[in-house]
Structures are given as C-alpha cells and as structure tokens.
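Onboarding guide, step 5: your first structure request.
Type a short instruction followed by the sequence, for example:

Predict the 3D structure of this protein.
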Amino acid sequence: MSSGSTVLVIDDEAGIRRLVQRMLAPNLCHVVEAEDAEAGLRLIERGDPRIDAVLTDWIMPGLHGLDVVEVLHRHRPSLPVAVISAYTSTIHPIVRKGESLHILQKPFAGPDLQRAVEDMITGALRQHHSARPLDGDGVDLVTAAWELHHARATRQ
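The system replies with structure tokens like these:
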C-alpha cells in the first residue's frame, strides 16, 4: 500500500486521534484529524487533501458515526468508512441491514487497525472506476447528514 494515501480520523477524543496517527503515519498513510463529524465532512467536501478512507467514532456530540456512515454511503459510495467504537453492540444491527461496514472495537491493536485500513484502501482502489462517477455530487454533506439525523430521530 502506498504511503501517499490519506485517512481521515473523526473522533471527539484527541487521545484517540493521536493514537491512530501514531499507528498509521508515516509508514502506512498520511492521517488527517477532525474533532467532530461536521469538521470531518467539510474536509471530505473540500477535497484537499483527497481522503482515501474514513475512520469515525460512533458516539459523538452532534452528528454521530451513523450519520457519517449513512451520508457517505449515499453521496460518496466509493469512500470506505470504518467505525471505531467501544460500543460495537449498537452498530451490529446496521450491518445486518446489508451495509458494508468495517468495525474496530476500542481498544484496538495497531496491527488490526493497520490491516483494516489497508483493506479499505485496497478495496477502494479496486472499485475506483465503477463508483467514482457518483462521488462528488455537489451535495452539502453536513446538511445531508443533519437531515438524515433528524429524520431518524423523528422515526424513533
């Protein structure tokens, strides 16, 4: 895998972001950090640097990991996303709905994280040509994520 790839880590805990940074950079990939989902989605929209994979926390203030997963699945389908969480039991019902989702249980080991990121980026490169035309559809990802978030809240 090329160390020219960039992974975005979205987590409200600075310690987790730094840990992921140390486990992945500089040998495996470049790591960009966001302290919340809105900041992470804005980085993806901006496209500089180009994000090749996303690692997101599940439980965060404001938009949650589920919001990130859903909005990227809908509007950036070729961008692989993994959830890093201590609360993986709340994630499994989504996986049963057919979502293709990597899940890493906190605390995770460096080799597990590295293997997951390698798999995500390799898979994305493999499907790059077929899925890329749907990406970058001009949708404001933060607005779309909040719409999904509010729609889900009214259904509950």
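Each response can be followed by summary notes, for example: Strands lie at 6-10, 30-34, 53-57, 81-85, 102-105.
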